[in-house]
Write a structure and sequence with these properties.
By secondary structure, this protein is mainly α. It contains eleven helices and no strands. The N terminus is likely disordered.
């Protein structure tokens, strides 16, 4: 996929209540899932949605604007749940387990999400990269920074670098879906099913928490 350095995107994303815009987003999402690719044309999206492709420009500015709006829509549920999760009267460890599961389930529900993020951050425009950082990367990193600090203060977590934690969790989720195709060709590994998703959640919980939970000795010192 070639870079598009001169591509601009709309800075204001269309309201999800707009039925025409939403139909275009649903069509784009369904096509990407069906084809296991983000390489879908405006004419494909128009045919799938039953809407004239000229309306893409009206609602989104261009194709990259539509892709940006799609990612914003798909990420919105997980991002809006972050503050709610942080406020729950449960332990930081329990919150982290729910967060790990939520991130992996979001990638599973929208298997093209990782490719959209890569494309919009690295192969689209500066404006698109800024928007993705604003509505996805920034809120996620800020939430994880606060949750890790809460866990350290409660004596549950060792002190961790939030950026490295973000890289570990999001990178692992990303590669499950992005690298699965290469593993399928190389070793015959099957697709990401609901069971694989559940197993991966358990695996990531054990892997991350096994390395970050404070030991009894560390808890005693902190206490």
């Amino acid at each position: 996929m070639a870079p598009h350095p001169n591509t601009s995107v709309a800075t204001k994303l269309p309201s999800p209540r707009n039925s025409t815009a939403e139909r275009l987003l649903v069509a784009a999402s369904e096509l990407m899932i069906e084809r296991n690719s983000i390489e879908v044309s405006l004419s494909d999206i128009a045919q799938k949605s039953g809407i004239n492709s000229a309306l893409v420009k009206y609602h989104f500015g261009n194709k990259d604007g539509l892709l940006l709006a799609l990612l914003a829509r798909d990420a919105a549920t997980e991002v809006t749940h972050l503050e709610y999760l942080l406020a729950q009267p449960i332990t930081p460890t329990a919150k982290l387990k729910l967060h790990i599961a939520g991130i992996i389930k979001a990638y599973f529900q929208f298997p093209y999400m990782n490719r959209l993020i890569h494309y919009l951050l690295h192969e689209s425009s500066t404006e698109a990269a800024d928007e993705v950082s604003k509505f996805f990367v920034g809120p996620l990193l800020d939430f994880q920074r606060r949750l890790l600090a809460e866990g350290v203060a409660a004596g549950e977590f060792r002190k961790l670098d939030p950026v490295l934690f973000y890289t570990s969790l999001i990178g692992a989720c990303d590669h499950l879906f992005f690298g699965r195709h290469a593993m399928t060709r190389a070793t015959g590994v099957g697709p990401v099913t609901d069971k694989v998703c559940r197993d991966y959640i358990a695996h990531m919980e054990a892997l991350l928490l096994g390395g970050m939970l404070a030991t009894n000795k560390e808890k005693a010192i902190a206490g």
